[in-house]
């Protein structure tokens, strides 16, 4: 029995030495140290030994077990060290090499323009208001002095969802909703930026979806000169102190009187060029004094309150300020175009 144990020890140590992977070592462990292994079978025959031989063979069996276990563990550590070294060689990184550049994004040009305009008007005491993009016919038209059948509705070819619901064609409904919310009890001084939708054919200057910012100031004793002062400050802050403005008579159903505002052309300084079509002026927004009908429908007494309203397109402002020649550039997500204005 002693010879058998020594023989098993030699066999096991030889197989451990020849093992090339952890799975090979596991096979050796199961084969020699498992419950059905030859060492266990030898120990089962100890009952036939004399009492003097049993402790000697038992001690030898434990010694053999420990020798095989130690050899397996040592070889396992060696194989793991070899494998680790191999992986380190394969996955070696030269930390002295320059890293790959990471592109840093920035706000969209329209977002920057809208935020810049918001900051300007917040500085003049205006608050920011928002409203739904899916609007009712009442707030989009009727509350703004555009009853059903009014010819001016044809100026805004609309996306109707139902007979009474549509995608808003301007942000003016937010003005009507705000005045109605205040119920004629307090002044209103607000701007409302947001997306609007019209059934326009997309080209260099038109889009079926675009952005609009409208402003409203309702209080007692508001004058047209107040509107001009606000717009003059806005133009000089946004385009430069050397810009001049002019107001021309116009028509909008929700304002009376109504005006269009032009700014002097920055390209020619007012002398006339191809950008301003030889006039020296560029149209930028519309506005006027709030129509009494609009005030009355919103709950304001037009004999006590009056005010002014205006509306502008951030896309047009961005095109003028940064020389963009096609409105579609804002919506095609071309990184080559957008990245030019990250630091604008």
UniProtKB/TrEMBL annotation:
Enzyme Commission number(s): 6.1.1.20
Superkingdom in the source lineage: Bacteria
Residues annotated to bind Mg(2+): 256
Coiled coil stretches, renumbered: 65-92
Any single Pfam family the record assigns to this protein: Phe_tRNA-synt_N
Cell compartment(s), UniProt: Cytoplasm
Cross-referenced CDD domains: PheRS_alpha_core
GO cellular component, one term: cytoplasm
UniProt family annotation: Belongs to the class-II aminoacyl-tRNA synthetase family. Phe-tRNA synthetase alpha subunit type 1 subfamily.
Protein name: Phenylalanine--tRNA ligase alpha subunit
Organism: Terrihalobacillus insolitus
Gene responsible for this protein: pheS
